[in-house]
Amino acid sequence: MAEGHTITIEQGDQHVRVVHGGQVLAESDRALVLHETGCPPRYYIPAEDVRLDLLTPSETHTVCPFKGTASYWSLPDAADLVWAYPAPKPDVTRIKDHLCFYEVEVS
Predict the structure, then answer these.
(1) Which CATH class is domain 7-106?
(2) Which residue intervals define the domain DUF427 in the entry (predicted)?
(3) Are 100 and 43 in contact (CB under 8 A)?
């Protein structure tokens, strides 16, 4: 990690739900919480708890120097709504096979 930049990943203990347009896209009690310097906490949801059948792979890819290359998925009315790191960097391997949404409900 760059000096002053940290990433920690912990097992979440809250119920996480993602709803878009009235439709539940993901729901899990097994989300990981990723804390990264300068970013809000992000909930990474196991792929098994995400409605992948509703999402379409996007052409978008971004590179994070700390996590690796992200792939994105979209809905017809929401581009690049969710992302994942199919081959995350060694320090964050726990997020492999997990997806992250911009907006989640936590309870």
Answers:
(1) mainly beta
(2) 16-103
(3) yes
